[in-house]
Design brief:
Layout lengths: L16 H4 L18 H4 L18 H4 L4 H8 L4 H8 L4 H15 L7 H6 L3 H8 L5 H15 L3 H9 L2 H8 L5 H15 L3 H9 L3 H6 L11 H14 L9 H14 L5 H14 L4 H8 L4 H8 L4 H14 L4 H9 L6 H5 L4 H14 L4 H9 L3 H10 L2 H17 L2 H9 L3 H6 L6 H20 L3 H10 L2 H7 L6 H14 L2 H9 L11 E2 L7 E2 L1
Antiparallel strand pairs: 1-2
Helix pairs in contact: 5-6, 6-9, 8-9, 9-12, 11-12, 12-15, 15-17, 17-20, 19-20, 20-23, 23-26, 25-26, 26-29, 27-29, 29-32
């Protein structure tokens, strides 16, 4: 099956920084929607789910037509496009069938199928007319297969199929009593809808959803052939896909109950495509997220998040990550469904992409309420985030930096003390050498938040010492000559406020901390880490 490159819209990252501080802003501003975050997170890795698929399976011809394989091979194996044109315009059904089958074989070739030659020869209207030939099942099937493969091509090629009137013709075929024909129609509609929002909405407008869903209206999904069920699921996922605009909300509400059923099926491909569908549906505004969450499917999504199958984990993590960009209440449903207990394995996963998306998800949970930050602590996830800061790949480190910054921005003093005790300061400061000035700003912001907490418990001096001892002060000082204005201003502010000579004299007259429980102590075993 050919994989098509994606044309998902990757919006440019907005200035995320100012969305984050909850000082005087409402918490939703701290959430990072997928669109606003680093573009590479957003280009929904579409190698993971194909937009369009070409049918290159070798069907035994006797299963598809009354012609014997050997006879039809002699007749149709090496037809030229000109011969095909003559054949389909012949009045003899048998010759029309042979010509259509010859076209299908050319279009099913592994290497460079001559899609454009077939289009230029004006064959599409004829092939579309054959879709209606209920008197000749084989010609319906061969023309459906040929058109499916034309629609699996470029947007131009798909357009030729749509302009030929294929959408309503294929929707009519969904009700065919012959499953191999209805399945080919499902596949064709999936290719057309996969082209983008415009054709997706056209397929919906022509009324495809109801007949598609009725194909799955059986008491037990296991009674359907697995290939058939996979095809229907994949096409449904393409009807949920793409943004600007997102699919009509009524269409989504119509499809969701079936997606919930599919999410409880046992076939791995069906589960993967269902999770992709849900990841598209949750990639949007809070009301879009709500439509999905209110079906009650989050616990099942979390269960799939914990399965070890990468093709299922990847889209289920994307969907969960999208849900926590929503409201605190929507995030709480994810937490209450037990998602956090899966994160130790996700945050230390051997695949960098999983680590990155898991850290991105954490950053939107730590942007939540203090009780939600506490759940992150209670599940032992802080050491994992620090582990990514220490040795993750850079894309994962950036997400972990956001997670820590959001935590320092919204956490209680006790929570920030715990973060420092867990050893966040050194790996955080080490990332100040990153070439990415946006992330450097976020780190300076987090350090500033930690200082604010230290001031409240009279532990500024110890924090200064800790920063100095791990080489962090040198790094902050070096940033004062940074090319980015915001960076050198932020670093200068930290130096002036906490590391200037006058500051040290002030520190001498600061009374001993009354909050003795927070006092920094050098830990015996690791002299380079301090405790509040």
């Amino acid at each position: 099956m050919s994989k098509m490159s994606t044309n998902e819209n990757a919006n440019t990252p907005s200035a995320r920084l100012n969305r984050f501080k909850n000082k005087g802003k409402d918490a939703t501003e701290m959430r990072r929607r997928r669109i606003e975050v680093n573009v590479e997170l957003r280009k929904a890795k579409k190698d993971d789910q194909m937009l369009k698929r070409r049918n290159v399976s070798t069907f035994p011809d006797d299963a598809t037509s009354p012609l014997q394989e050997n006879r039809s091979n002699q007749v149709s194996a090496h037809w030229s496009v000109e011969e095909i044109v003559k054949g389909v315009n012949n009045n003899n059904t048998e010759i029309q069938l042979q010509a259509t089958q010859a076209a299908r074989k050319l279009l099913s070739r592994e290497q460079q199928p001559p899609i454009d030659s077939i289009i230029r020869a004006g064959l599409i209207p004829k092939l579309v007319s054959f879709l209606g030939r209920a008197d000749c099942i084989p010609i319906q099937f061969e023309s459906a297969w040929a058109l499916t493969n034309i629609a699996s091509g470029t947007s131009e090629q798909t357009k030729a199929v749509v302009d030929g009137g294929a959408i309503p013709a294929f929707i009519s075929l969904l009700a065919s009593p012959h499953t191999h024909i209805s399945e080919q129609a499902v596949w064709a509609l999936g290719n057309i809808a996969g082209d983008g929002s415009t054709y997706r909405d056209l397929v919906i407008k022509f009324g495809a959803i109801e007949p598609l869903l009725s194909l799955l209206a059986v008491p037990d999904l296991s009674s359907l052939a697995s290939g058939y069920l996979r095809n229907v699921t994949w096409t449904l996922s393409n009807l949920c896909r793409n943004k600007n605009p997102a699919p009509p909300i009524e269409a989504i509400e119509q499809i969701l109950p079936t997606l919930v059923r599919l999410l409880h099926h046992d076939d791995h491909e069906v589960l993967a495509d269902t999770c992709w569908a849900l990841s598209y549906l949750t990639d949007g505004s809070n009301d879009r997220i709500e439509v999905v969450v209110k079906t009650g499917l989050v616990p099942q999504l979390v269960k799939l998040l914990g399965c070890s199958e990468l093709p299922i984990m990847t889209p289920s993590l994307r969907a969960i990550g999208n849900i926590v960009t929503g409201t605190d209440e929507q995030t709480q449903i994810v937490i209450d469904s037990g998602a956090l207990s899966v994160f130790p394995s996700l945050l230390s996963h051997h695949k960098n992409n999983i680590q990155k998306e898991a850290a991105w998800t954490m950053s939107n949970i730590t942007a939540g309420r203090q009780d939600q930050i506490q759940r992150v602590i209670d599940h032992g996830l802080v050491p994992y985030l620090i582990g990514i800061l220490r040795k993750g790949d850079f894309k994962s480190q950036k997400e972990a930096v956001w997670a820590v910054a959001n935590y320092t921005s919204g956490g209680t003093i006790e929570q920030i003390v715990y973060l420092v005790q867990a050893g966040v300061v050194e790996p955080l400061l080490n990332l100040l050498s990153a070439k990415d000035s946006k992330i450097v700003l976020v780190i300076l912001d987090a350090i500033s938040n930690i200082f604010l907490a230290a001031e409240k418990i009279n532990e500024t001096e110890k924090l200064c010492l800790m920063i100095e001892e791990c080489g962090g002060l040198d790094k902050i000082e070096a940033l004062q000559s940074h090319e980015n204005e915001q960076v050198y201003k932020a670093s200068s502010t930290l130096i002036e406020k906490y590391f200037s000579a006058e500051e040290e004299e002030d520190q001498n007259v600061v009374p001993e901390s009354t909050a003795a429980s927070y006092t920094f102590q050098v830990q015996g075993n690791t002299p380079d880490t301090f405790n509040f």
